[in-house]
Design goal:
mainly alpha
Length: about 70
């Protein structure tokens, strides 16, 4: 079983509360990394906007495409 098939089988067992808790834990981990590694917070605001736009292209395209 490939990694992606395994991950999909795990996600299918989760309900909306589990998915929400996963999102909160990932956000907390990102904030922790930003708190401990201050260099990442010294970037200008547009770098964060660029990363956001690049990361949002595929999900938004799937939502709009359906």
């Amino acid at each position: 079983m490939s990694l992606f098939k395994w991950a999909n089988s795990i996600v299918k067992k989760c309900d909306w509360i589990d998915i929400g808790l996963i999102k909160i834990s990932v956000a907390a981990a990102v904030l922790l990394i930003a708190k401990l590694w201050t260099l990442i917070l010294s970037l200008d605001w547009y770098w964060y906007a660029i990363v956001f736009a690049i990361a949002a292209i595929r999900p938004v395209g799937k939502v709009i495409g359906k």
